[in-house]
Design goal:
This protein is an alpha/beta fold. It has six helices and seven strands. Strand 3 and strand 4 form a beta hairpin. The chain is globular, with a radius of gyration of 16 Å.
């Protein structure tokens, strides 16, 4: 039996307030219309807005998932996701931002691999901060979409990030 392998697409920016969450939610809606099973992971750990934007009460979150993994209590992914509709599920950011600091990046590849087995598309909303967690997400993404505005700070920061990508031979990104 072949193991399902969905694609991980991360949506990021180098500056806050550029609309990455809105774009990610629209992508989820597009995939939903094509009858794809979608998981949205809110990796904007301190200030994520996916659950709020979709008016979903997040009684479960990524901190609970990773805490269960680290304590060998994990059994299945569906216990930690919240259903939005028949095709879209959400793995919310921590309800308490203090829990964000307790998320170890070594669990991110495991979470993404689990998600790829159960979903056609895994959309990851990241923070604009290049933390170890977000860099791990970018490294394990099939494609990364970077949202850029014509703001001077945004353009300067994107130019710096592109230099890093060039130096590390990273090619799985698209700048919008």
């Amino acid at each position: 039996m072949a193991i399902k392998k969905g694609k991980v697409i991360s949506v990021s920016s180098v500056k806050g307030g550029v609309g990455k969450t809105t774009i990610l939610l629209n992508l989820a809606g597009i995939y939903c219309t094509f009858d794809k099973k979608v998981l949205i992971i809110d990796m904007d750990l301190y200030a994520g807005g996916i659950a709020t934007s979709l008016n979903v009460k997040n009684n479960k979150d990524i901190f609970m998932l990773i805490d269960s993994m680290s304590c060998n209590r994990f059994t299945e992914l569906k216990k930690y996701v919240t259903s939005y509709n028949n095709n879209i599920d959400i793995l919310a950011c921590p309800r308490d931002p203090r829990m964000a600091m307790k998320i170890d990046s070594k669990f991110i590849p495991l979470v993404l691999d689990l998600a790829k087995r159960e979903y056609d598309v895994v959309l990851v909303d990241t923070s604009h901060i290049l933390s170890e967690v977000n860099l791990t997400v970018l490294d394990h993404s099939y494609m990364s979409l970077f949202i850029v505005t014509n703001d001077l700070v945004d353009l300067k920061n994107m130019k710096s990030l592109m230099s890093i990508f060039k130096d590390t031979d990273k090619k799985n990104y698209l700048i919008m």
